[in-house]
Design goal:
By secondary structure, this protein is mostly beta strands. The protein is built from 4 helices and 14 strands. The strands form 2 sheets. A 7-stranded mixed β-barrel has the order 3-5-6-7-11-12-14. The protein has a two-stranded antiparallel ribbon with strand order 1-2. Strand 11 and strand 12 form a beta hairpin. The radius of gyration is 18 Å and the shape is globular.
């Protein structure tokens, strides 16, 4: 039998709606930078958040039972996120030529463990074999090799990805979008905050759930408009491709620090 999240909505001391027993203060608290140095630094950019509502029951069997599915406005959400990365390096080393820049595309949803919200990745496709190997080895993340291209003309970006990895189902993505105006910084309790302000990722290894912290400034989001989208990324996980228009947001650039995986432990 599958299990769904049964926590009830409640209000915090400021009267703002909160979801699944997590207060806005809990969500903001994850922004605090860890006390120890990060293991890795990266630059993310040309990034498009594409999100749809989805029935949490469809996701439950794809996510470890230790994790709760995080919901907003009564729904779970699924995202397809194309972007490019550069300046990738260990925090104590300079970038290594040939490994420090590549394109990536991930399919994700949002989860919590013991009240700590984060990201659960269904898949991550990358155009760098060494990065795919390293992320599988050291972060237990479902990375796949892919051929990916990004082209920009003015405010229009075209992004193409085709998986080239027998470990995953065939999957492809093609999109063109136009970059729009800058948006105000998202606030706790808003949909944009829920979908983008995530400061840890979860993964599973041999039945145990692990968490890695990340840190960055709040996302400098911009409007965006999809001109074309043809994707089998969600369907590759046995999930129905949403037929409604998605919520779309863009980010030109963000600096990110990443910490090692740690086994999750419930707070006392």
């Amino acid at each position: 039998m599958t299990r769904t999240n049964t926590r009830r909505h409640h209000n915090d001391e400021r009267g703002m709606m909160n979801i699944d027993g997590i207060t806005n203060s809990d969500r903001v608290a994850t922004r605090q930078r860890p006390d120890v140095p990060p293991i890795m630094r990266q630059q993310w950019g040309k990034l498009l958040f594409i999100h749809w509502r989805i029935d949490a029951r469809l996701l439950r069997s794809l996510i470890p039972s230790q994790l709760e599915i995080d919901t907003f406005e009564g729904s779970a959400w699924i995202g397809v996120i194309p972007f490019t990365m550069w300046g990738i390096r260990a925090s104590f080393l300079p970038p290594i030529p040939g490994t420090s820049a590549f394109h990536e595309l991930n399919v994700r949803t949002y989860v919590t463990y013991d009240g700590v919200p984060g990201v659960w990745f269904f898949s991550l496709d990358a155009a760098n074999k060494l990065a795919v190997w390293g992320a599988r080895k050291f972060y237990s993340l479902p990375y796949f090799n892919a051929r990916i291209s990004l082209q920009q003309v003015g405010n229009s970006i075209t992004y193409l990805s085709t998986r080239r990895d027998s470990r995953g189902a065939p999957a492809s993505f093609e999109a063109t979008w136009t970059i729009g105006d800058r948006l105000p910084q998202s606030q706790p309790g808003s949909r944009d905050f829920f979908l983008t302000e995530r400061y840890c990722l979860y993964s599973e290894h041999r039945g145990e759930v692990y968490r890695a912290r990340i840190h960055h400034n709040p996302w400098p989001l911009q409007k965006a408009q999809l001109a074309w989208l043809d994707s089998s990324m969600i369907a590759s996980h046995g999930l129905p491709t949403p037929e409604v228009d998605p919520q779309v947001r863009y980010c030109e650039h963000l600096s990110v620090d990443i910490w090692p995986l740690k086994k999750t432990e419930a707070r006392a």
